Structure prediction request, 335 residues.
Amino acid sequence: MYCLFGKYHKNTMPLPHSRFHARLGTFRQLEIFVKFAETGSISQTAQDLHLAQPSVSIQLKKLADNLDVALLEQVGRKLYLTDAGRELYASALEIFDAVGRLESRLGSLSGLQAGLLKLSVVTTAKYFFPHLLGPFCNMYPNIEVTFNIGNRGAMIQRLRDNKDDFYVFSHPPEDIDIETLEFVNNPLVVVAPANHPLAKKKNIKFSALCEEPFIMREPGSGTRHSVEKFLLDSGHSINEKMTIESNEAIKHSVMSGLGLSILSVHTLAQERSEDIAILDVKGFPMQYHWYLVYLRNKQLSDIAKTFLNFLKSDGSEIAAELLQNSTAKDYIKSL
Prediction:
């Protein structure tokens, strides 16, 4: 017996009988399917991928037909992933992760650091993390970066789904097998309108604030998690009057006299206003840190490894310099 490229030998490893990979669809179809799995919407998938809605529907149907299995089911007017669809989604993420690592390795072999770096950070970290990315991207101009921002709950779900290379938390989850790198301080402070009667007082007891109206971040936020832990440990309570999902909106609400709040210094660092004051409260600032987090068994691409080494060597210094040059530097120096 002869094979295409020479004589067939008895001990030669035969090709696998399964041709499943030939039915798995194109990378574009998988990309469309993954985007739909994440958005749950044909129209949003089409918008994000710059496609017509009928094209999205046709490609999803072709993929299901190739695999001979239902990937979606309709309940009422909404489409959901079937069990098979959820399995394909998890496997497609692994496929794209492997392709990304291949791109990175090929880029390294050609002398170019190229590839995709996927990052997700909690909302407050968006104030400083781009300043870390800037020097890194200048060093490696051929890389692409995806940068996702959300509250702590959303980032934990992305971590569970293994969607990104790295995540940034002030309180890393304790029920997931992860590696952590502590690299930036994250002090939390009590803020008030600049004309508040307590703005010029020293050594304020937190109990004196309990009747003041407070503006809090939403459930799932890392800042709220920190505040709730402080209240539980200290036995204090606060008069929560508003819940807002945006640090910017909270700052403007405080400046408008709607209440006090507890925020990260990083939210004030680049745009400190004369209309907002940091109160001198006993026990504050609450000292926390930012952590770079990744799954313990994750296979990091060459780009991801390079970024991790960059943070270990330069990250803390860059972040410290950023804070020292910020408009909140006088307060930060006293921490």
About this structure: The first helix runs from residue 20 to 23.
